[in-house]
Amino acid sequence: MQAIYDVLAPAKLNLFLHVVGKRPDGYHLLQSIFALIDWADTLHFERRSDGQLLRHDHGAALPPDDLCLRAARLLQAQSGCTYGVDIQIEKRVPAGAGMGGGSSDAASTLLALNRLWGLNWPLAKLLPLGLKLGADVPFFLGGSHAFVEGIGEILHPIELPPLTFAVLKPSQSISTQEIFSSPLLARSKNVAIVAGFPANNSSGEKTGESSLNHQKVSHEELISLDSEGIAKLLGGSPRSFGRNDLQKPAEENCTEVVQALHILESEFGNSRMTGSGSAVFARVKTPANEQEENLLNQIIFSKLQGLPADWSGRICRSLDRHPLQGWAAD
Fold first, then answer.
1. If you ran DSSP here, which 8-state letter would residue 325 be given?
2. Dist CA 205 CA 133 (whole Å)
3. Does residue 248 contact residue 178 with C-beta atoms inside 8 Å?
4. 303 is catalytic
5. Which region among 66-75, 167-176, 261-270, 303-312 has the lowest average model confidence (pLDDT)?
6. What is d(CA 275, CA 167) in angstroms, rounded to the nearest whole number?
7. Parallel, antiparallel, or unpaired: how do β-strands 53-58 and 84-90 relate?
8. With contact defined as beta carbons under 8 Å apart, do 37 and 13 qualify?
9. Catalytic residue among 12, 91, 169, 303
């Protein structure tokens, strides 16, 4: 195999995000539901025989040593592979959004190079590499929506019904470090226990590796835990999605987050920041036909017309599964 083209790297939304503890090393322990959406970057890979790892950007230049190159370098070093690669990136997911764009690019790079270089490593061997690159990378390797714990490395794949969202990304980005060090950061009092999941590492000790529990839990089962379980986190209404504990400090640090939240709340009756921001989203009714979908896109387009040119936004749908699911054997 000499090349792999049109490799997708989809973004994610945090339907809720709760801070439930802190490890001795300073990392915060989280609980969240990560939902894959169809806002995605596209990557192309061409194998090199000289061992060099090169990246070519389509559009605005990315940081010189981004997560894609770090992922390629790590896989090359760990596998002893003598091949190199030319990576071309068509960047569409906005940076600094809390949507996991860089982490998704890294995960797709690991999966694509695993094929391109003929390594054929199983998923269990790639997951620890993903965790070394970033806490969100294992999720994108996992291939499905997930209830996420720890610092992001403990994954419980779940099934969600088809969902549609309006997403806005302001021009400003937010420092994750500032958010987590803010005195306004809330800590959730209740930890969700999902029936059927094995006991996790709730002590806060670092395990050093990513775990992937393949037990499926349907959306209906999650909602059935209304008063005491995870449905409390999702909220009493399918429009509310619980809360994001990072949102208050983000609003204090970034006035554009407040503005974006207000725009979506006014238009759709709900809004939520994803991850550590600055992108925000609203749950919207899934269009029944092309006419309704065009209308939703027109609404977002009209909102963007009154905002600075470096804002971005679109209507996004949840994915049934990651487009690269199955690229590494279980």
1. T
2. 19
3. no
4. no
5. 167-176
6. 13
7. parallel
8. yes
9. 12
Determine the residue type at 35.
A
Which residues on adjacent β-strands are paired with residue 16? 33
Give the DSSP H or E segment for 253: helix 247-253
pLDDT, tens digit, 9 for 90 and up, residues 217-266: 344 444 333 333 433 444 434 444 568 889 988 998 899 999 999 999 99
Is 136 labeled as catalytic in the residue annotation? Answer: yes
Task: State the residue for tokens 């000499």.
Answer: 2
For the chain, the C-alpha Rg in angstroms (whole number) is 19
pLDDT digits (tens, 9 = 90+) for 180-229: 766 666 665 555 443 333 333 333 333 344 444 433 334 444 433 333 34
Predicted model pTM: 0.85
DSSP conformation letters of 155-173: EEE------EEEEEE-S--
Q: Note whether 157 and 142 are within 8 A (CB).
A: yes
Q: Which residues touch 244 (CB under 8 Å, ≥6 apart)? A: 14, 16, 17, 272, 273, 274, 275
Q: Which two tokens stand for residue 147?
A: 């209830």
Can you state the percent helix, strand and coil of the chain, rounding each to 5? 30, 25, 45
Task: Give the active site residue among 91, 136, 245, 303.
Answer: 136
For residue 121, the SS3 value is coil
Is the backbone peptide bond immediately before 278 cis, with ω within 30 degrees of 0? yes
Over the stretch 29-85, which tens digit does the pLDDT of each residue have? 888 889 999 999 999 999 999 999 999 988 778 888 999 999 999 999 999 999 999
List, in order of start, the domains of the chain with CATH numbers: 3-201+208-317 (3.30.230.10)
Please check whether residue 124 is in contact with residue 94, taking contact to mean a CB–CB distance below 8 angstroms.
Answer: no
Give the separation between CA 78 and CA 76, rounded to whole angstroms. 6
Which one, of 9, 197, 248, 16, lies nearest residue 111 by Cα? 9
100 close to 176: Cβ distance less than 8 angstroms: no
